[in-house]
Amino acid sequence: MTEVEFQEGSSSLHACSTMSVVIPVYNEEEVLPELTRRLRAILPTLGMEWDVLFVDDGSVDRSLEIVSSLARKDAHFRVVALSRNFGHQIAITAGLDHVDSDVTIIMDADLQDPPEVIADMLAKWREGFEMVYGKRISREGESWFKLATAKLFYKLLRRLSNFDIPVEAGDFRLLDRKVVEAIRQVRELHRFVRGLVSWVGFRQTSVLYQRRSRAAGQTKYPFFKMLVFAFDAITSFSVQPLRIASFLGLFVAFSGVVGIFGMLYLKVFTDRVVPGMASLFCTILFLGGTQLVFLGVLGEYLGRVYQESKNRPLYFIRETVNAPKKG
Ligand code: UDP
Ligand code: MG
What we know:
Elements: H1 3-15, E1 18-25, H2 32-42, E2 49-56, H3 63-73, E3 77-82, H4 88-97, E4 103-106, H5 117-126, E5 131-139, H6 144-160, E6 169-176, H7 177-184, H8 193-199, E7 204-211, H9 223-237, H10 240-269, H11 277-310, E8 317-321
Parallel strand pairs: 1-2, 1-4, 2-3, 5-7
Antiparallel strand pairs: 3-8, 4-6, 5-6
Helix pairs in contact: 6-9, 10-11
Residues 24-26, 28, 57, 85, 87-88, 91, 108-110, 112, 219-221 line the site of uridine-5'-diphosphate.
């Protein structure tokens, strides 16, 4: 069979293939009506069987009620409700556990990722890519602080981890069934889904898009949550911070030795005296501070080892609508 014939064969296969859109939802009652309107306008035009899986991450507003009543009326919509708030990354994971389609799209509920981009992602999938991530060419309506810290974070992460995690790419992606099946096998608790998705490999590419501002509601990622998220990302993909401690320790010890010889020299060969208190004080503060920082770094890793070793389930499900398929 020639290349051309093969592609024709596979595209006719794609014509009747299935697509699931996984959307984590946490207190998003304001955006849900607009979100469903947009999804209903776009998904049927893509030439695939489609469904939308809302993962309610323990919302305390009317989100669950809204998505459940939608799902009861329209079988295209399905709901998995978690027993409490487990966090964005676990909610995505729960979603991936409950899809059974040729293609899965991960998308935020707040319409920052425009669903229209799914068409471009599908085009890449039809070309044979197994993972397509949305790459943000611009980000509207986010504070300079969020932009600056995000940039710093991605720089740091790329520097510290040994493989290519794409910058300016969030969790908005298309995953082929094979990728979803691979990710399902990774059951770590502290997970950084976009890192895992790069880590599993497969043929990956990107599509460019403009990240909009939130259609309604507030961000569910306050600064502290972002910080924990960043720690999770770095510790799950790199042990460099631990290594930095060793190198810094070596460097400080070496400087100490140079200092001792310097002072001995001054003492023996000159009559100059090295002033004591101030330099001593600074040294003690510096050493004490660095030791505490790296004790903290060690603690971050140790804490995660402890939590992972308990091997608890990642989430619990309270209720579902439209009998989701458990993968
Ligand atoms: N989200 C979630 N659980 C959480 C926090 C957020 O499921 O604990 C969902 C939220 O409803 C949204 C997505 O994750 O669909 C991204 O959250 P958000 O838009 O607040 O993050 P940002 O875009 O500001 O980084
Ligand atoms: Mg958002």
